[in-house]
Write a structure and sequence with these properties.
about 40% strand
Length: about 120
Amino acid sequence: MDSWNRSNRGSRLRFDGRDQSKPGGRRSGQRPKTVEIKIDNFSFGPMTLTVSPGTTVTWINNDDVPHTVVSEDTTTFKSKALDTGDKFSYTFAKPGKYPYFCSVHPKMMAEIVVQ
């Protein structure tokens, strides 16, 4: 067994980085989670993403045309027009459902679920 396995034996980490031995706790020194959503072919991928509170979501425009990322309420988050290769990030602090769309192409819709 190498030293990493010995030092982490019995650790009860969830995928979201929380330590199960401390309810609601996060391991010290662990970075908050970041997840990427790709914008390509006039769609957000994945269309529905479930994350834990504190997760930063980064959208990357891989399309050949500009897109935006705007929360359904238009106030929670709103990107500028993203050209090819541009990124926009938002950190979701509170549990809930966050539908969003592209204001340039309103039929492009998706949702972030924070739980």
